Amino acid sequence: MNISDLRELLQDKRVIEEINRHLWIESQKAGYSIGIERATDEWLRLYAEGWMKYHMPERYTALQEKKKKEIERQKREAKANKSSNRKAKKN
Fold this sequence. Notes:
By secondary structure, the protein is mainly α.
């Protein structure tokens, strides 16, 4: 997920509630407050994609398609670069 997707996700009250729950649980395990920044980073890294898949299936599908297209574009660029490097070596 890119930063704009994460910003959009953080606008949802349900996500903030989940992050606060994660903060509480992990702080209890640690015996001290892990802090909202760490809780947010961990929740986004570990749970955001699954949460979106369940709660926002249309948005999740759109992100997956966007990710596929980006990977395909990168592969095409890499192939084009490899080809142009070969031509440059021949000359």
